[in-house]
């Protein structure tokens, strides 16, 4: 529990002293007298119950406890600053654009609700939405062309310098058109008798689907078509005898409406986290922070968490 005696001024003073390595210089920057900043530091050490800085004629040096406290003090001040900036942006009707990338399952299922909620938070802002495979979107995020990406956690080598905040978990489903001869099939091996739309190498779900096939002793499919296009997958499946291996979110509405049927095949091995990705070292803009909050609320509204 946070000690009620702890104030923002204590954190600000401590962080500035640590940054300047001098009480005198920190006091000048914060427009305080040296006795006042010394008193603030003493109060902070009394609250924490430990010595945070060692004083000497040469300046100040951080103790082990001080190093630990500094990390969290910096994070706390950053969070407070972002909160104030975001609240101010909402009250002022922030204008501008936020660019968001979404994997197909997110674009079809959760994103529409997130955009609705974002419009309430920032009615004067314009969301720019792109969908596509994981690698393509993460590359655009890393290049600064997208502010956020919402989708599956990728392989470790694709997530370098990218932060990930999990929202919910999702698995893969195998679907077909109503009346398909395999509508009640329970064995993965059976689907190889028909065209199969399979996730390509760059798809985030590909390793999980491959693992499921290996675990079930299923080899390659003679009539395999690789695609991440929801439009193509839906069109081919509805218009013929193809079976489609795809993230549940992409076809959730189709299944609910009876346009597609999910085969009763166990796919637990394909379950994986869906979350928000951002550049690890960047502070999110006020609009990006608001879209992030809208996405989190959308997950709750839809009962996905």
Record the strand order, biggest sheet: 4-3-5-12-6
Q: Give the count of structural domains.
A: 3
The CATH topology annotation of the largest domain reads as D-Maltodextrin-Binding Protein, domain 2
Major sheet characteristics = 5 strands, mixed
Uncertain stretches: none
Fraction in helix: 40-55%
* Number of strand elements: 12
Output the number of helix runs: 11
Straight-line distance between termini: 27 Å
Residues in β-strands, percent: 15-25%
Q: Based on helices, strands and strand pairing, what is the structural class?
A: alpha/beta
Radius of gyration: 26 Å
CATH arch. level architecture of the largest domain:
3-Layer(aba) Sandwich
What letter string, H or E per element, gives the SSE order? HHHEEHEHHEHEEEEHEHEHEEH
Average per-residue pLDDT, rounded, comes to 89
Could you describe the 3D structure shown?
There is one protein chain. With 305 residues, the protein is an alpha/beta fold. It folds into 3 domains: 8-90, Winged helix-like DNA-binding domain superfamily/Winged helix DNA-binding domain (Arc Repressor Mutant, subunit A), CATH 1.10.10; 93-170 and 273-301, Periplasmic binding protein-like II (D-Maltodextrin-Binding Protein, domain 2, 3-Layer(aba) Sandwich); 172-270, 3-Layer(aba) Sandwich (D-Maltodextrin-Binding Protein, domain 2), CATH 3.40.190.10. The protein contains 11 helices and 12 strands. It has helices at residues 8-20, 23-29, 34-48, 64-91, 104-109, 111-121, 134-142, 206-215, 230-238, 248-257, 286-301, and strands at residues 53-56, 59-62, 96-102, 125-131, 148-152, 162-170, 172-176, 196-198, 224-226, 243-247, 261-262, 272-279. The strands form 3 sheets. The chain has a 5-stranded mixed β-sheet, sandwiched between helices. Strands 9-8-10-7-11 form a 5-stranded mixed β-sheet, with helices on one face. It has a two-stranded antiparallel ribbon with strand order 1-2. A hairpin with a 2-residue loop joins strand 1 (53-56) and strand 2 (59-62). Helix 4 packs across helix 11. The chain is elongated and about 85 Å long. It starts with 7 loop residues before the first helix and ends with a helix. The relative contact order is 0.15. Pfam families: HTH_1, LysR_substrate. Keywords: DNA-binding, Transcription, Transcription regulation.
């Amino acid at each position: 529990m946070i000690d009620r005696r702890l104030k923002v001024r204590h954190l600000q003073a401590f962080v500035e002293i640590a940054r300047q390595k001098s009480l005198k210089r920190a006091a000048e920057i914060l427009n305080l007298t040296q006795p006042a900043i010394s008193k603030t530091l003493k109060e902070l050490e009394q609250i924490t119950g430990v010595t945070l800085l060692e004083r000497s004629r040469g300046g100040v040096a951080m103790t082990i406890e001080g190093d630990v406290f500094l990390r969290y003090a910096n994070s706390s001040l950053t969070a407070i600053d972002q909160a104030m900036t975001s609240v101010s942006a909402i009250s002022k009707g922030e204008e501008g654009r936020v660019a968001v990338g979404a994997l197909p399952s997110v674009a079809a299922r959760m994103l529409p609700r997130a955009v609705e909620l974002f419009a309430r938070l920032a009615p004067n802002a314009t969301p720019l939405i792109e969908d596509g495979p994981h690698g393509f979107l993460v590359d655009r995020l890393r290049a600064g062309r997208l502010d956020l990406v919402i989708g599956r956690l990728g392989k470790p080598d694709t997530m370098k310098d990218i932060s990930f905040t999990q929202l919910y978990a999702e698995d893969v489903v195998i679907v077909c058109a109503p009346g398909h001869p395999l509508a009640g099939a329970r064995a993965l091996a059976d689907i190889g008798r028909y065209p199969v739309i399979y996730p390509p190498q760059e798809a985030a779900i590909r390793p999980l689907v491959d693992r499921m096939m290996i675990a079930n002793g299923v080899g390659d499919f003679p009539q395999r078509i690789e695609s991440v296009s929801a439009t193509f997958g839906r069109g081919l499946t509805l218009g013929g005898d193809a079976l489609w291996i795809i993230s549940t979110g992409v076809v959730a509405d189709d299944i609910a409406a009876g346009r597609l049927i999910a085969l009763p095949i166990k796919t637990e091995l394909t379950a994986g986290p869906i979350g928000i990705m951002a550049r690890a070292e960047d502070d999110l803009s006020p609009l990006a922070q608001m879209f992030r909050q809208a996405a989190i609320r959308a997950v709750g509204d839809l009962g996905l968490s």
